């Protein structure tokens, strides 16, 4: 297996991009990545996208986007794993370069979610849950995560205020990210007095609906050392795992088994332990999710995620800053793009290009991207050479 | 809701039909073709009991389009006597008096309908026992 490097990372502004089409949103970020890498050819492309069919009525995305990116006949594949589509695309690109099949691979993620109404978006997102045994009965994604929150609060005593700390921290980080959809700083009071969506989760516990894309250029480390003018970022670990799609089929409702198993695989490949990780981008689709995720990644003991967040362990300047980009919560959550954008943030941080939110002397970073209520998870670990 | 899709699930939604693995005894709801615990492929058809307890719950305040006229409504995960868990609405209850651990029973109820001329879908909802 060849060693794989990230030599380009690109992401344009996320938000409600009414004036831009899906194809243009993608091409804009892909060109940023290509220019960042300074490459003049791409051998193959992977696109993470959850549901362009339901959001804009467009499938066969890989060919459309290759055409509009001017890459003509190169092979291209769309990858889908609900909200983990982007992470799954990163892994597909990693495997293709590692295997020796292709040298320079573009990995992109895209979702254009705001062409449909709120109802339309709820319907499309709900396809990431079990249609017949969850969605049929009237549950929503905030509802599923709310039930995980109730289980976590009951088992470990996690408090309403601790959940709010996740949102406050991530909006604080996002206020320093010019590409964030919602860069506003918020307070604990704002969160706990915002509109209730599914008890105990309120609107400020939820990530938004977003238009956006992100892209990476991968190549073998050996080639990167020759052509890359910036610090070379190596992907040292890649882990992927699945779980039951239905939340109710799991033994323990407030643990993310797929994340835990994906992390174990990534740590093993990277020969790293949780304490070696200096910063992480994780899937905070809801505040409770970040708490469960940092437990599953082994950053804190099970049940201590809420307390650790409240104590500032995961804040900028804390022991392991989590979601320095603003996370899904503030930066936005164009579902298929999220997993790719997480790697973009880690690459920028490890190169020292993160501006006001820079983590000093960061050498090892991790990303965790998750589909549905945890039915799929991808974990990647990166190190700057 | 397409009619084959609704019709196909009737044995589960109307009668709580489940599959019990003939080798290891694990129960699956809905039934499946291979046991995820022991990989056996032979099952016995059983009917789940309608009694259980509430494990976790929420109140949906912002609902999908087929359910907007029902908000706010409670949804929970119920563990039935056999150890099988199902996700279901909780009805005939006071929303602010719900708590985990309460005993519930599953009843046959209308779940959703597809506009004025579409299919009316039935299934199970739980009520405090």
TrEMBL record, chain A:
Keywords for the protein's UniProt record, in alphabetical order: Transferase
CDD domains: SCP-x_thiolase (cd00829)
Any Pfam family hit: Thiolase_N
Keyword Transferase included in the entry's annotation: yes
Residues in Thiolase C-terminal domain copies: 239-383
Domain Thiolase N-terminal span(s) in chain numbering: 4-220
Single GO MF annotation: acyltransferase activity, transferring groups other than amino-acyl groups
PANTHER family: ACETYL-COA C-ACETYLTRANSFERASE, ACETYL-COA C-ACYLTRANSFERASE
The name this protein goes by in its record: Acetyl-CoA acetyltransferase
Biological source species: Candidatus Fischerbacteria bacterium RBG_13_37_8
TrEMBL record, chain B:
Residue stretches making up the ChsH2 C-terminal OB-fold domain: 47-109
The species this protein was found in: Candidatus Fischerbacteria bacterium RBG_13_37_8
Classification via Pfam families: OB_ChsH2_C, zf-ChsH2
Protein name: Transcriptional regulator
InterPro entries named in the record: ChsH2_C, ChsH2_Znr, NA-bd_OB-fold, Thioester_dehydratase-like
Annotated ChsH2 rubredoxin-like zinc ribbon domain residues: 8-44
């Amino acid at each position: 297996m060849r060693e794989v490097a990230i030599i380009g990372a690109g992401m344009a502004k996320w938000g409600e991009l009414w004036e831009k089409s899906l194809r243009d949103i993608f091409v804009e970020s892909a060109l940023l990545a290509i220019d960042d890498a300074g490459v003049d050819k791409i051998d193959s492309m992977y696109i993470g996208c959850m549901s362009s069919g339901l959001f804009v009525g467009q499938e066969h995305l890989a060919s459309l986007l290759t055409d509009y990116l001017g890459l003509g006949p190169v092979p291209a594949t769309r990858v889908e794993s609900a909200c983990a589509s982007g992470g799954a695309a990163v892994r597909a690109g990693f495997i293709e370069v590692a295997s020796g099949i292709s040298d320079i691979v573009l990995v992109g993620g895209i979702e254009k979610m705001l062409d449909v109404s709120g109802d339309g978006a709820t319907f499309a997102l709900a396809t990431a849950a079990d249609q017949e045994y969850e969605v049929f009965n009237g549950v929503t994604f905030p509802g599923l995560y709310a039930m995980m929150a109730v289980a976590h609060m009951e088992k470990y005593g996690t408090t309403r205020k601790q959940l709010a700390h996740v949102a406050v921290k991530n909006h604080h980080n996002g206020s320093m990210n010019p590409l964030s959809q919602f860069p506003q700083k918020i307070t604990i009071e704002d969160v706990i007095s915002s509109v209730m969506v599914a008890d105990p989760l309120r609107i400020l516990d939820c990530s938004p609906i977003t238009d956006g894309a992100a892209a990476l250029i991968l190549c073998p480390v050996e080639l990167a050392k020759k052509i890359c003018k910036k610090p070379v970022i190596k992907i040292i670990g890649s882990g992927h795992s699945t779980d039951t799609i239905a939340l109710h089929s799991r033994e323990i409702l407030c643990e993310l088994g797929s994340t835990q198993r994906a992390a174990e695989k990534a740590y093993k490949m990277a020969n790293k332990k949780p304490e070696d990780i200096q910063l992480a981008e994780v899937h905070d689709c809801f505040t409770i999710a970040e708490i469960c995720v940092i437990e599953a990644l082994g950053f804190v003991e099970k049940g201590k995620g809420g307390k650790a967040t409240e104590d500032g362990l995961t804040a900028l300047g804390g022991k392991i800053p989590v979601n320095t980009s603003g996370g899904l919560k503030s930066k936005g959550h164009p579902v298929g793009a999220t997993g790719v954008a997480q790697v973009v943030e880690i690459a920028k941080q490890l190169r020292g290009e993160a501006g006001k939110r820079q983590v000093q002397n960061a050498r090892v970073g991790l990303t965790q991207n998750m589909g549905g209520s945890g039915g799929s998870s991808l974990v990647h670990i990166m190190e700057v050479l | 809701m397409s009619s084959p899709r609704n019709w196909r699930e009737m044995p589960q939604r109307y009668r709580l039909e489940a599959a019990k693995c003939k080798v290891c005894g694990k129960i699956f709801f809905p039934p499946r073709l291979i046991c995820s615990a022991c990989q056996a492929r032979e099952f016995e058809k059983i009917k789940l009991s309608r009694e259980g307890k509430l494990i976790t719950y929420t109140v949906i305040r912002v609902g999908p389009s087929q359910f907007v006229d029902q908000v706010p409504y409670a949804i929970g995960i119920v563990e039935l006597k056999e150890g099988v868990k199902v996700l279901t609405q909780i009805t005939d209850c006071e929303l602010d008096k719900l708590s985990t651990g309460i005993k519930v029973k599953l009843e046959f109820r209308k779940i959703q309908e597809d506009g004025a001329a579409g299919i009316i879908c039935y299934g199970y909802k739980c009520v405090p026992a």
